[in-house]
């Protein structure tokens, strides 16, 4: 098949116009916003023009269906409240171009999906989570966004497009092209990342409790300062984890609340959320053990109470070997010596779809690793390289 | 003179009834609240009954004046939004009792003051700050509380009581009895603290800037995590300061804001407020130098930007030697071997008054060091001991 890179880029820029922020190439197109609804109507038109049958489920996931059986390509079409033009959109428009080109060339049957609410207006990857059967529509309908709007209310804006459930059985596998959203490919001057696995995530609230006191009248020796405990825990953990992780492991304290968070009061409570990610379930568990031990040692040493919240998380997901190898071969053809096999540190719709179908993913570079930001961008040559790899893999795989 | 401890305690409990929280002995009597206004009207009546001339300045500071020259005794009558029954109130009612008893015994002339807004509804120790001439009424009138009410609006509730400015020159000195608001006397089983100095305070915002990143896709080695910087700074500072401080020095990180403070995002910015207190100006400066050096070293090591905010603060205030020695002699008479000379770690109205008059302070214990809390309390025997010390010192000093 022959990719029309001009047509692909023109469509990608046209999708960007729905919710364009007016700042650089930035986009504001959260799930079910006016911009998102308009974008889905436009995408449905493009799918029809490509000879695909348009379908939408109650959740607002938009499909352009080829005759069954087909490969399913795509990603999500919603954006962060203030996001970039490629996060999700790239995979959807690339899928459209490959489906179109394959149809024109009499190639394998390719269907397209634009998942809904990947960016978490209501949940996290909600659209693919419901479609892959992990959650029911009824279970997610009461979810509310920050403004108090429920998912059930929000999805009325797309009600006229809903055709009903879209069966999984018609698809032989799912491939998602996405921007890396990290700095590795860009820093190495590489064009393509073929994903080996999507890392697992663990997420736990940890609360240190001390004694709230007057910051002037309480001698240091008599204090039980919850924040000093957090600081000690954080620095000790940095050392402790370095011994058991790989360069692919990450951990983050992104959220912290002190109580009462007042200049003149010794903090009586400090609650942080610690998140850690790794491709290996065993290592995730070893990291957890180290985290608990370090926190307990600090709490004991400083006379603090310690509470661990519920541990939440997602298991690591290995990519399907057959799909992945087709991507590797195509990457070596399109970008010889300028691609790598790599973990995905971010969560994607592919994580959910993997419960039901063979899945694979490929990445193109994010300039300076920037994403979820108006400044998110990728060289157009790299965008086209990504579509080319996708097209070659489809040709290899057939339907 | 002869203190009437039953009358003193009865008045103290009656003052507690204005704004009583209904939880333990707790009080809710912020400056210019209905409870505060009612309390000032009641206090004015008690002053009159004691033969004092009632006066109030525009700021709402309430005076019961003896013939000039007189010693001025007192504290503040407002409370924290949710405070204790003794913080401020003790010093006012003790002053009333000593003025009354001295008058009855034909002793030295003693005037009484109940300062306004010590607890910071609008400013910090606003009443005594204006009375002592550091700020003008015009300058503080636009200050607003958390609900948006201005001081100018709030003080209308006391307008009918205002008699005009109250001259400083009529007073030979100021003595304030207060609860310790810290654990030292209670822990040592002592009854009286004679204050040697009120510590100086330094207060500085410190902002570490890093790179906001995706918590899944950014390798640890490429991160510039603002919170990891804060944690390293905090632990290194704990070690660094221990070498230059005394057991009376304190430092506190009570306030910290991460940005964007989201579980899945590497913090790009972290702003903390560091406060430190010591009785010695030199040591405060050495602590500042250590703080700046430690922060700079951490920022440099971790590739973070560093911004120091404006340094605010109050200088340490030494107590007047003559007044202090009168309190020491009286303490040894009333509580032989059960008193100490100590720094005040907390700010008091005496800090402001010291700009204009000789001042001294004495403390009684706070049970478990608790203050600014409904649970704040002191043994009645210790409250009475405090009044006795005050009365004896007044006798020694004369007017």
UniProtKB/TrEMBL annotation, chains A, B:
GO terms for molecular function: hydrolase activity. The keyword Hydrolase applies. Residues 200-300 form the Peptidase M20 dimerisation domain. Keywords: Hydrolase. Transmembrane segments: none annotated. Its EC number is 3.5.-.-. Belongs to the peptidase M20 family. NCBIfam families: hydantase. This is Hydantoinase/carbamoylase family amidase.
